[in-house]
């Protein structure tokens, strides 16, 4: 489905996420304003943590949401659970494996920012 305001990149990302959602057997969010194919059913997303790629990330997410809120931070719900293109799950998926492995984190950041060190 084409959305007028989408860039080519966003349109392609929606298409790929829709294909992934179907392959995973995840039901599309059926709320009237959520016709984008990259949205999954919120309750299914929250229960399965389908937006998170590894078991380690799935285990960490609930703990971190509680911590973020206790520090008066914001968690975009239901977006973190149901939007397959949301930046919040991207952050956790990208950085979770570095969270408990500081040696790996150091290597990654030295590689990315070699000329800044």
Q: SS-based structural class?
A: mainly alpha
Rg from Cα: 16 Å
Q: H/E series, N to C? A: HHHHHH
Could you name the ranges where pLDDT drops below 50 across 5 or more consecutive residues?
none
Biggest sheet, open or closed, and with what strands and sense?
none
Could you say which overall geometry the principal axes of the C-alpha atoms support?
A: globular
Level of helix content? 55-70%
Strand content: under 5%
What is the count of helical runs? 6
Explain the layout of strands and helices.
Blueprint lengths: L7 H16 L18 H7 L6 H16 L8 H4 L4 H13 L2 H11 L5
Describe the fold and architecture:
With 117 residues, this protein is mainly alpha-helical. It has one domain (8-116). It contains six helices and no strands. The protein is globular.
Can you describe this structure in just a few lines?
This protein has 117 residues and is mainly alpha-helical. 57% of the residues lie in helices and 0% in strands. The protein has one domain.
Keywords:
117 residues, mainly alpha, 6 helices
